[in-house]
Amino acid sequence: MVENRPFLAVLTHLVLLAGVVIVAFPVYIALVAATHGPTALTSGAMPLLPGGELFANVMQVLTENRRGVAPFWLMAWNSLWMAVIITLGKIAISIISAFAIVYFRFPGRVLAFWLIFITLMLPVEVRIIPTFKVVADLGLLNSYAGLTIPLIASATATFLFRQFFMTIPDELMEAARVDGAGPLKFFRDILLPLSRTNIAALCVILFIYGWMQYLWPLLVTIDPNYYTLMMGVKRMAAVSDADPQWNIIMAAVLLAMLPPILIVVFMQRLFVKGLVETEK
Amino acid sequence: MDTKRTVFPARGLPYLLVAPQLLITLIFFIWPAGQAVKSSFEAEDPFGLSTRFVGMQHYLRLFSEPAYLASIGRTAVFALAVSIISMGFALILAVAVNRLVRSASAYSTLLLWPYAVSPVVAGILWWFIFNSTTGILPFALEQIRIRWNHQLNGTQAMILIIIAASWKQVSYNFLFFLAGLQSVPQSLNEAAAIDGAGPVKRFWTIVFPLLSPTTFFLLIVNLNYTMFDTFGIVDATTGGGPNQATNTLVYKVYTDGYIGLNLGSSSAQSVILMAFVIALTVIQFRYVERRVQY
Q1: ipTM score here?
Q2: What separation in angstroms does the CA of B169 have from each of A13, A212, B3, B150?
Q3: What is the pLDDT at residue B292?
């Protein structure tokens, strides 16, 4: 700080506390709802302080089978698989294509780069029907392959690795070649270990990305056994029953949003690195 | 586009290495996009047996259709409101955190986690808060004589999705504003302080102009986010209603095509949206990459 102004220091903390409270508000309300019994939320005004029923509600979410959705653990399993396959798949195909583009000169190299670049401009949201049709024609509806493979192409991860490879000194590669290492050995023994932090940061970002997917699973799964958590909680919340069980629904919502939040909180450095680097 | 000074002399290998990425790109990105362009110029007969070329008919009809024009206007209002609100709020928080030394990282953690909340969950959370029977905010608004019912009132439904979408985007903007603020040279601030400029004047004459590359970059990213990544928010809160009041362009592509099975029109809408994304991406890479410097 440039100069000492006690008033500004107090104001700074007040602004930040207000910000933290506003940001946390919706989750706090969900938490309050998830900690009460079934009657507290339907009888007039909502309570403002947490109750003691959280554990019971969570147990009910985890064990009970609800109409229209798959069992909670199955949806969690599907979400986990989807996020993990997308993460590993994106990293794997991006790192090898970046390797090819940086360390080889071959006809069609620039074309390959531009084709990958174009994926940035074609998010799934703008080509819903034809992409659905391709996946249906390939027989991939209601499968992990259909849920993940169409999302695996990644221009941002490829750019990130390309940029990183460009900063690796040429001498490393020349030395490896002098010592008789082929491209695959160089990739495995030198590039991969050097890329460790980048891979870790990408893992954090991509896992969150995969976990959050909603529109794509909504399109390609009709069989409830392939529903993901994001679809499941939306369907639970959307039931227009006379008596929606808010405490159970909100407990399910909290459980569904918890894994990526824990990742952001406990791997904050990797998360920030991943987010900032992928946007370059 | 550069390679290394020396490269590996392999013939087949590089093709094998780019093949997986290119195959997925061609099958799941470029081919469907081409199909969308193609079917935006075609009409199917009612039984889906034959298609014929109809030229610009779908596009002409879209742009003469009040519902579509209204959807463009609505999406523009939504995108601008969310960008301004979430960027403004994030900038205030980032400036505040940037003033702190010891507690900065604790506050950052407390402000960053909403990034990990998916749009559809953000939608459910705010929908629960605003729902007209048990929601807490309608109850509070009742006390100041405002009747909240976003299921009937289109303006209120729009406010609801703006709040939900802005809330989710604050942490992203905060992170980038904070990084931008930290790269403003401290010596400039100190020099201005010695010359007698107060904190407010220093912010507007030094810090804010130096932040303009970050601000511009974030504006593009936010427009992209509100136009394309908010499907879950709309789907979980209003479903495009009431009476189309929150039917944004992306949501309309989904409802017209996937639900309403109006393929030609939906494809034409897809193509128009592609043009939007391409424009935004080109702007981002042409002007943002250069990072305006003073």
Answers
A1: 0.89
A2: 22, 14, 37, 22
A3: 43
Q: Is A133 on the interface with B (CB under 8 A)?
A: yes
Q: Is A141 on the interface with B (CB under 8 A)?
A: no
Query: For chain B, which domains are there?
Result: 58-288 (1.10.3720.10)
Q: How far is it, in rounded angstroms, from Cα A95 to Cα A167?
A: 15
The answer to whether the Cβ–Cβ distance between A215 and B254 falls below 8 Å is: yes
Using CA atoms, how far residue B106 sits from A16, A20, B13, B113, in Å, is 11, 11, 48, 12
- B189/A127 Cβ within 8 A: no
CA distance to partner chain B, nearest, from residue A64 (Å): 21
- Residue type, position B98, single letter: N
β-pairing, B51-53 with B42-44?
antiparallel
User: For chain B, what percent of residues have pLDDT higher than 90?
Assistant: 33
pTM: 0.90
CA distance B257 to B265: 8
Helices marked H in chain A — which ranges? 6-34, 54-63, 72-103, 109-118, 128-137, 144-148, 155-167, 170-178, 183-186, 192-194, 196-212, 215-220, 229-238, 246-266, 268-278
Residue B133 neighbours by CB under 8 Å, 6+ apart: none
Distances (CA, A) of A272 to A34, A203, B119: 30, 12, 20
Q: Which chain A residues touch B113 with a CB distance below 8 Å?
A: 261, 264-265
For A39, residues 6+ apart whose C-beta sits below 8 A from its C-beta are none
* Greater model confidence, A85 or B140: A85
DSSP H/E element including B19: helix B13-25
CA distances from A280 to A266, A273, B250 (A): 24, 11, 26
Q: What is the mean pLDDT of residues B104-115?
A: 90
When pLDDT is cut at 50, 70 and 90, the band that residue B38 belongs to is confident
pLDDT tens column, A22-35: 999 999 988 888 88
B104 touches chain A (CB under 8 A): no
Which bin fits A104, alpha (ψ -120 to 50), beta or left (φ > 0)?
beta
CB contact under 8 A, B231 and A214: yes
Strand partners, B44: B51
CATH 2.40.30.10 fits A80-230+263-278, yes or no: no
Tell me how far apart the alpha carbons of residues A20 and A31 are, in angstroms, rounded to a whole number. Answer: 16
Q: Do B14 and A116 touch (CB under 8 A)?
A: no
> Which residue of chain B comes nearest to A185, CA vs CA?
B8
pLDDT at B178 (0 to 100): 92
Q: CA nearest B34 in A: which residue?
A: A130
Nearest to B32 among A99, A134, A213 (CB): A134
